[in-house]
Amino acid sequence: MNELTVPISEEAIRALHVGDTVSLNGVIVTARDAAHKYMIENFIEGKPPESERELYERLKELLSGSAIYHCGPVVKQEDGKWSFVAAGPTTSMREEPYQAQVIGHFGLRAVIGKGGMGPKTLEACQKYGAVYLHTIGGAASLIAQSVKEVLAVYKMELGVPEAMWVIRVENFPAVVTMDSHGKSIHAEVAEHSGERLKELLGL
Amino acid sequence: MRDLTEAFVELIRRASTDLPADVEAALRKAHDSEEPGSAAERALATILENVELARSASTPICQDTGTPIFTVYHPPGTSTSELERQIRNALAIATRRTYLRPNAVDPLTGKNSGDNTGIAFPTIHFHEWEQDELRVSLQLKGGGSENVSIQYKLPYAPLKAGRDLEGVRRVVLDAVNKAQGLGCAPGVLGIAIGGDRGTSYMKAKEQLLRPLDDVNPIPELAALEARLLDEINRLGIGPMGFGGKTTVLAVKIGTAHRLPASYFVSIAYMCWADRRAHMRVRGEEITYE
Predict the structure, then answer these.
(1) ipTM computed for the complex
(2) Which domains does chain A have, with CATH numbers?
(3) Rounded to a whole number, what is the distance in Å from the CA of A4 to chain B's nearest CA?
(4) May I ask the CATH architecture of the domain B5-14+61-142+275-288?
């Protein structure tokens, strides 16, 4: 088990290889479809509008050396305080068009989700020193136990699942399935299953 | 008419926080069949641990509480509009109690309705029957698995799939290979042969209500279900797409009459969190299973 603590160093990331299990600690941010589109349009390809300037600066601080978690949680609010009830990963592949730019722009060290990502993200992991961390899809009640505190929520107008939740995690369990050395378990499994399929179909 | 709103809330709670016994048993069997210490075995162990935790804490198994699909069988004389009103109200209550994530988004404005109701949301299928009881099934179908669901039109030349059961076999294998781990494998496949594009998918999702260990009464479909289960699991995609022996838990196939011109094969992929629950109302008595 490899301990990773935010801010994560490039050295710690380069030491990881596919198949390694990690335990993540520190402050990370959830972001999924709408948030990625928002970041690309407002911060990366466009100049941040005045109204978004403050959030942009905040996200730069939060995300540098940290991780984005592809997750749209079930949350509850008691006495004004938010907490996570269920918080498993969503399918990461939908962020493939955006992820590489977001990694590079904000200096992310990890992207957390499920199902793996494609060649653009893998290349960004190699170039910038980042990893893709796989958590167990559907294991939402269990994973929520690693989320100790909700520190803030941004872009709530996108709705609860799509909002950016700033959370502090402890012993958050994950497996490296794409590393910073160009290896992807997802690409390997897909290649293997593709060969089996051809055999079964006699193609 | 009697107010069943709270009974529907309880049906939703059960569907979201507890897994049907047959699904949990299939996951346990899958866990025991994977190589000890493998990523596949660890993934299934985590899944089983999560199922137990969700049940005891009464929290959602998965944060994607999905599209709620209600199938209602009602006696003659029941007001379906009143039942629909109660169901919609129950969804809003269940969302406030955090059994459900607010999951209904307006595609034009991007606005989340906040209470799991909206245009054509939830899905409700009403059927009148001659029995003196109300029977309601609820499926919660997550988006990850819905996104890898797929419809083929036969013949399909790239796979040399013709308009016969061999053609069906070929496209189903292709569909699972395309899905990889993205639909939260090990999944359950509901498949429909025939219908139009709409009824075909409906029929496919209806197959997901069948118990995992039932046997198709049509012998050639029973044989195809068994063969596909075996062949799909030889693809080696495994739990979460980590590689392994278990890619699907069950394959269920149904049919619908088609037009001479059309031959659709619809594959409704359901994630391992195959959430379905049933409720019966007979007189004053309400039971769940």
Answers:
(1) 0.95
(2) 2-201 (3.20.130.10)
(3) 20
(4) 2-Layer Sandwich (3.30)
